[in-house]
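Retro notes, item 3 of 5
We never archived the inputs for the magnesium ion complex last cycle. Fixing that now. Sequence and ligand:
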Amino acid sequence: MRVVRAEWMAAAAGAGQFPPPGEPEVAFLGRSNVGKSSLLNRLVGRRQLARTSSVPGKTRLVHWYRVEGGAGETWLVDLPGYGYAKVSRVERERWQPLVESYLESRPTLRAAVLLQDLRRDWSEDERLLIEWLAQRRVPTLVALTKSDKLKPMRRARRVRELREAIGLPAGAVVATSATSGLGIADLWRAISAPAAVEPARSEP
Ligand code: GTP
Ligand code: MG
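Structure as it came back at the time:
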């Protein structure tokens, strides 16, 4: 997608501060330091629109970015990361209600993009999140991040391994790199047609 304009729009520490629902939203979630803010910047072609850091725990609030291009306007939502051991317990206890209230209450949420470092194995956190999103019928994509860290052969093998281990269809798992730009066009395509990759659901 050709982005013609991207700007920071709002931030919230709790549900009471969420901006009123407007345009369709795509939310980015994943472990701290996995590369959520970097990937968002790469998607919109702006190096420092969302703040990034080599120190985990950089994004503490929910941030909205308004993006114009393609068929119209989309809001990209950068969520704080989970699983950062060094943040205080108080901080950790804030994450779950904040992220859950966002994912549960947002009528305009069109898709969630769960990020996973291509070099790491799935943890219980990602498995639970994928299950939780499927139960709430949120179309879910996986972006495997930092793909530039592996050579092409090894990268292709890892993508297959991780996809098989999590049981999502091929189109729902995209290898990406915020550094090289790999997979960015594929991810935009997947984001634009998330219904096609809605996870299979078991009947209650
Ligand atoms: P929190 O806000 O703490 O949850 O982290 P985040 O998921 O937003 O991660 P962030 O984008 O801040 O990136 C974390 C670190 O990973 C930074 O040092 C980035 O430069 C690095 N990084 C992110 N994406 C890539 C990538 O595609 N390739 C490489 N090599 N490094 C990356
Ligand atoms: Mg961040």
